[in-house]
Write a structure and sequence with these properties.
The complex is a heterodimer of chains A (364) and B (230). Chain A has 364 residues and is of the alpha+beta class. Chain A is built from ten helices and 21 strands. In chain A, strand 4 and strand 5 form a beta hairpin. Chain A starts with a strand and ends in an 11-residue tail after the last strand. Chain B has one domain: MetI-like fold. The chains are: A alpha+beta (364), B mainly alpha (230).
């Protein structure tokens, strides 16, 4: 468990945030730039001094201003991947990787060959830092941080300086770390797509405060989050279990009490995956649908009706314990007579697979 | 070197020896001072900065005179050095090295400080998160990255030490084989009737050494930039 509750004044900006992350897990600190995400991460690392508060990791106090505990960063055993990589320019890649390992305290849980293998660094070891591409730099920086055998990995917008293609090149490696090493991570981002791919938990930062937090599924419905990501990106993130292939070459996935068909191959029955159902891709019917081209219909009950703008309503539908959202016009809400408690069918036009299995392994 | 007289060869050897000692004396303190001035905020910092730079603007003769007061046999430091450690500075090549060290010190500190100020401090933060304590960080990150400045400073100071005249002649006089360095030999030749040719030779030698020093310093700076990919 990572537990953070800190306050810091920097000029006119006040950081006053607290959150908890069950470990292993990946918490995304999400918010607009200037919301205090990086400041918070620097306080966790110990690079910035908090005015007051505490940081506790698996029962070890790293910071507790009341008890006058303030462990220096070099003893916190927290790996940090910076936005600008910060590789040491006078050392080759291999020496950069070794830097933290040689100074690592505590038991080693990853070794050099393992990290090189996980991050595909084999061909880069003898290179100089300035000969690397942006994506390669970040992979080396991640490897260097891992080899210091950290108890927690902080990643401060590690992909923000990369273009879309390079980002796509690095993201799978981060997913691998999450699933294979089960190391707790704090991931700072203002890109919701990255958050969807990596995070198990989300802390929403607005003006120096953690205004909302929770599991990614619950947070995907949060109104304050919706306000930041914009109407087109709003949609429920749900966890599904693979049932098996269907006759048409799609994969059947159980979501709540219903079943969705997802375009994916090679998934074992029983595998967990995360899908996003964008609100604009979900329609609501009050009768069992017939004669439709939509393949996915989930029976459920309306649990909430809210609105982010003047034209449309967001209808939250509970489908057997899982909540999804549909965006329909306010006129449609009236005509269908929708109210909390109405029995409905949620018709899903398209399902985006947002990756992959997550690790259920226990922490070391 | 048969085109040089034995006295001139002596002067060349002595100059190189004095300049080497001078750089060796000042290297450590210069790194420390450069670091203090670039990285630390403390009361009296501006005063210290000014004092370090004073030799650039004071008449060298005056610096030599000050050294004489402090490090002479009856001076507070010189007397102690002689009594306790048996080190004699006055009229010796070590004294000459001290005088040139003081004169070239600001050049050295300046070069080091500039390269230190150009180091991205984020790299030191990164080293911290990787478990490196303060001394470790300095030795493994800061010092290697400021090495171009250290080298450039050392070479510039060495070249300047070869040419220092006023402070040396005031502090340790002009003794052949002990304190008569190249510029002092050149001066002596000019004062000697019929010494024109010797003076010309010594002038050419000084010019060559100065040029070599500056070129070498530039070469190292370029090489380091290449290694660091800047």
């Amino acid at each position: 468990m990572l537990s953070v509750a800190v306050a810091k004044q920097r000029g006119s900006f006040a950081l006053d945030a607290s959150f908890e992350l069950p470990t292993p897990g990946v918490v995304a600190l999400f918010g607009r730039s200037g919301s205090g995400k990086s400041t918070l991460v620097n306080v966790i690392a110990g690079l910035l001094r908090a005015d007051s508060g505490q940081v506790t990791l698996d029962d070890a106090a790293l910071l507790d201003t009341r008890r006058h505990i303030d462990m220096p960063p070099e003893r916190r055993r927290i790996g940090y991947v910076f936005q600008d990589a910060r590789l040491f320019p006078h050392l080759r890649v291999a020496a950069n990787l070794n830097y933290g390992q040689r100074r690592a305290a505590g038991a080693a849980y990853v070794n050099f060959d393992m990290v090189v293998g996980l991050l595909d660094l084999d061909g880069l070891l003898q290179r100089r830092v300035h000969e690397l591409s942006g994506g390669e730099r970040q992979r080396v920086a991640i490897g260097r941080a891992l080899l210091s055998q950290p108890r927690l990995l902080l990643l401060d917008e590690p992909l923000a300086a990369l273009d879309a293609a390079r980002r796509e090149e690095v993201l799978p490696y981060l997913e691998t770390l999450r699933d294979r090493l089960a190391i707790p991570m704090v991931y700072v981002s203002h890109n919701f797509d990255e958050v969807l791919r990596l995070a198990t938990h989300v802390v929403l930062m607005v003006a120096g405060r953690a205004v909302a937090q929770g599991g990614i599924g619950a947070m995907s419905l949060d109104p304050q989050l919706r306000a930041i990501i914009g109407p087109d990106a709003v949609g429920a993130i749900v966890e599904g279990t693979v049932l098996g292939p269907d006759s048409g070459g799609l994969t059947r996935v159980q979501v709540g009490s219903g079943e969705l068909k997802v375009q994916a191959v090679g998934l074992e029955p029983g595998a967990k995956l995360r899908v996003q159902l964008l609100a604009r891709d979900v329609i609501v019917a009050v009768q069992p649908p017939q004669g439709l081209s939509v393949r996915n219909a989930l029976p459920g009950r309306v649990v909430d009706i809210s609105s982010d703008d003047t034209e449309s309503d967001l209808i939250a539908v509970d489908v057997g314990g899982t909540r999804i959202m549909a965006r329909i016009t306010q006129a449609a809400t009236r005509e269908l007579g929708l109210a909390v408690g109405s029995a409905v069918w949620a018709l899903v036009k398209s399902v985006s697979l947002r990756g992959h299995y997550y690790s259920t392994r226990v922490p070391r | 070197m048969n085109w040089l007289s034995p006295g001139e060869v002596d002067a060349l050897r002595l100059s190189l020896s004095v300049a080497t000692r001078s750089v060796m004396f000042s290297l450590g303190p210069a790194i420390l001072l450069a670091w203090l001035l670039a990285r630390r905020r403390f009361p009296g910092r501006t005063l210290l900065d000014t004092v370090v730079h004073l030799p650039l603007v004071l008449p060298p003769v005056m610096v030599g005179y000050l050294l004489l007061l402090l490090f002479g046999t009856r001076g507070p430091i010189g007397g102690w050095l002689e009594r306790v450690l048996g080190i004699e500075l006055i009229f010796t090549r070590n004294g000459a090295a001290l005088a040139t060290a003081v004169m070239s010190f600001p050049l050295m500190v300046r070069a080091m400080r500039i390269s230190l100020e150009n180091i991205d401090r984020g790299l030191e933060d990164a080293a911290r998160t990787l478990g490196a304590g303060a001394i470790d960080r300095f030795a493994s990150i800061t010092l290697p990255l400021m090495l171009p400045g250290v080298l450039a400073g050392a070479i510039t100071a060495f070249s300047a030490a070869l040419g220092e005249f006023g402070a040396v002649i005031t502090f340790v006089s002009n003794i052949p084989g002990e304190t008569r360095t190249l510029p002092l030999a050149l001066y002596t030749a000019l004062q000697t009737p019929g010494g024109d040719r010797a003076a010309a030779r010594l002038a050419c030698l000084s010019l060559a050494l100065g040029l070599a020093g500056l070129l070498l310093s530039e070469y190292f700076a370029r090489r380091m930039r290449l290694v660091l990919g800047r």
